[in-house]
Amino acid sequence: MKIGILGTGQVGNLIGSRLIETGHQVMMCGREANNQKGLDFVKNNSENASYGTFAEGAIFGEIIFNATNGKFALDALKLTNTDFADKIIIDVANPLDFSAEPPTLIPEFANTNSIGESIQNLFPKAKVVKTLNTLAIALAVNPKQLNNGDHSLFVAGNDENAKTKTITILTEFGWNIDNIIDIGDITASRAMESYLILVVRLSMALKVPMHSIKVIK
Amino acid sequence: MKIGILGTGQVGNLIGSRLIETGHQVMMCGREANNQKGLDFVKNNSENASYGTFAEGAIFGEIIFNATNGKFALDALKLTNTDFADKIIIDVANPLDFSAEPPTLIPEFANTNSIGESIQNLFPKAKVVKTLNTLAIALAVNPKQLNNGDHSLFVAGNDENAKTKTITILTEFGWNIDNIIDIGDITASRAMESYLILVVRLSMALKVPMHSIKVIK
Questions:
Q1: What interface predicted TM-score (ipTM) does this complex get?
Q2: Using the beta-carbon criterion (under 8 Å), do B191 and A200 form an inter-chain contact?
Q3: CB contact under 8 A, B217 and A206
Q4: Which of A65, A147, B35, B120 gives B30 a disulfide partner, CB atoms 3.0 to 4.6 angstroms apart?
Q5: Does residue A122 have a pLDDT over 90?
C-alpha cells in the first residue's frame, strides 16, 4: 500500500521503516523539499522508500500517518493544502507539553478536546483513526519485543472501514487482533491522549526501557 | 485500626464493609448527625461499625478515607473543622463530570491539578495517599474477583510511611504487593485521575461488569 508519513522525527522514522519491512511503499515527508532526516531515511531503506513534501505525501498516500510534534500537528497538516478527502489519516501524535516537569497536556488538547478529534474537525472529509500513541513507538511498531506481544493497543475513529484497514497494518506490525481494542469514535482520542500522563509516571517509576498494559476482563 | 470514612455512598459503603471484614473498626461518616445510609451501614455490619459526622470521623480515624463525590470533596473535608495533622487521608475520589456524555474531568481538577493534590494543598499537615480510584470500587476492594487478582493498582503520595500503611490495607483487600505500583508523589494523582477517561471508554467498549489493567514490563 502507498503510505505517506508526515514528520521525519524518530516517530516517523520508526513507523516508516517498519511499514517498509512489512511490504509497503513509504513516502517520508517534511516541510521542505530537502530534509536531511528524510533523505537519510530513503538512504537507509529499500527502493520502497521515497521523500517528499507534506503536500506530495498527502497525494501519494492512500493512508497518511500524522507523526508530527503534537504541538504543531494542525499547522503541519494544513501545509498539505488538501482536504484529505477519503484518505485515512492515522494520528499517532501526542499532546504533551514538555516544558512542564513532569509533562502536562497542551491545554488546547486537554480534557474536552484531543489532537485526534481536532484533525477530524479540521478535515471533515478525512477518515481519522487514532492509535499507536499509548506506548513507546519502538515497541508500538514491534509489539512482540515485550511479553511475546501479549499487551493491549487501542484504536478510535468514526469510520469503521478506516479502522479495519488500520487494524490490518497493526497486525502486520505484530499485534494480535484480540489485543487491539476499539474504544469508539474519534472523541475517544481524549482517552488515549490523557492516558499518556499515566504512561509518563509509569516510565519514571518503573525505570525499564519498555512497558505497556494489558486490559484484563 | 480505627478508620473513618467520609462519604456514605456506594464507594464508602463498599470500602467500609471490606475494612470491617478485614478486621478494622470503621466509623462511617456523613454531613449530618443522622444519615440513613450511614445508619444502615451500622445495622448491616458488625459491632466494629459505627456512625458519626465528618468532624467525628476525622477525630476517630488514624486513617481517613475520602469517599465523597469528587465535585464536593474539598468542601466536604472542610466540614471536619480539623487540619488532619499526622492523619493519613486515603483519597479515592474521582473528578468526573457526569453532566457531559461521556463524562469529562471537572475542569478545576484537570491536567495541571487533581483532587489528590488539592486535598494535600488544603491540609498540608495531612499525609494524603491517592489509590483505589482506577477501577470499579467493588473490584478495587476485592481484586481476586478478576484474573485471580493478577492486575495492577497504583498509589501516589508524598509520605513514604503513609504509603506503606496504605499498601498494608490494600494487601488485606487481596492485592498482591507486586501488583501495587508506587507512581510517585501526590501530584501523580493527576495520572490516576485522568486515566479515568480511558476507563470510561473501556467500560463502554468492553461491556463486561469488571475490567482492569495489568502493567507489563
A1: 0.97
A2: yes
A3: yes
A4: B35
A5: yes
